[in-house]
Amino acid sequence: MYALCTSATRPRQADYLSGCYTAQSQGRVLNMLAWVFGLELRVGYDIMKDAQTGRPINLTLFPQPFPAIVSISHRITGGVLFVGVAFCLYALDLALSSPAGFDEARVLIAQPFSRLIFLGLIFVLVFHVLAGIKHLLLDFHMGDSYEAARIGASVIVVGTVIITGLLGVALW
Amino acid sequence: MVTQVLSLTRSGLTDFVIQRVTAVVLAAYTFCIVGYFLVSDVTYEGLTAYFWSPAMQIFSTAALLSTLAHAWIGMWTIGTDYLRPAHIGRIATTVRFAYQIACLAVMFVYLVWALRLIWQF
Question: In this structure, what CATH number is given to the domain that contains residue A85?
Fold first, then answer.
């Protein structure tokens, strides 16, 4: 399958349809999964190169640099929060329905499993907000040097753990 | 390449600005809600008085609309980055369309559910 990927030009519609470009992506995903699970296994695939400059298109580095992992996590946490809104609306609905429903919501949230879900949601929310603030700062070209990006990514991760811990203690 | 057919405004720049403005609204709302749970002894009477005060009703509605716009742009970005012919082949357009419709359906449920909660109808 990967032998198909010999075209050294920018992908065109024909490349998409022939599966050539798809094979490159599948190779990247397989290698990423192998890296995540700590396997030495890597599959080979030809990297598409720009016809004019010869530079690789969609060059993917594994392991990813730390700031890149934090960056993709911003997107992942956003997707999780979109689903998490349903849990929050459910709890709020129950708590606002009646005094009895309010007590029911208290009992529900105190259960270990739902406590884990909401603590997880708080963790994800704090991460998304901190990464979002960094994103806004980057829009004003604050902290967009390589060193600042590394520091910023560390601040996000450490800050998320600390703030989530403090909120978890304060709320329960 | 995926064209911007189903982005919020069909303009990358407008989507960019909306994404950031709604982010600021949502951050402010988050601080407000978290702050309330931190400083007050939460009871049913207290929570309803706080949540159904006119100021919070308006703020919650702003946050709700911001959530929907922010989520639409974010989920559209995720869809057009990963559900592409380059990643999943020829079925990409069909899969992405189904994904967008699913997102839309979830957002509609959130909209009606939250509006009923906020405005008590």
Answer: 1.20.1300.10
